[in-house]
Amino acid sequence: MKILIIFVVFLTIFSSCSKDDGVTIDNSGYYGKWTLVAMSGSIPNSETTGAAMAWQEFYLFNTNGTFTKSREENSVKTTLSGTYTTTTQSDGIFFELTYPNDSEIIGSCYGNQKEVLFLNANNSLSSTWSYCDGPGLEYEK
Prior knowledge:
By secondary structure, this protein is mainly beta. The chain has a domain at 32-39 and 56-141: Lipocalin (Beta Barrel). The protein has one helix spanning 2-16, and strands at residues 32-40, 48-49, 56-61, 66-73, 76-89, 92-98, 114-119, 125-127, 136-140. The chain is globular, with a radius of gyration of 22 Å. Residues 1-18 form the signal peptide.
């Protein structure tokens, strides 16, 4: 009987001592290619997808903190590389991308060779460019 009580106490102690707070952040899931899948404007129901979008583009996030952005518009392909950092804030995970020089493919409200993207609850990546009348851009891995 003592062994059974000791066993039950042992199981109770080890099953109740968990550090799981319900939040799991696995940065390795962000690496790789994120492709533009939808564009939207400020007009309701203005979303376009696929070949109907004004341009095609993707981001490629590397494990060493660098990225490449590539856009094809009107048969002209433009590619830029830079560095990025991720931050976890109360409203989600944000990516700050920094470019070495200015370009027309940088989608930013600030004009300072930086872009900000955020990870949505549905595991898509969105641009903050829409906050200042730019298009709403959504990317999927």
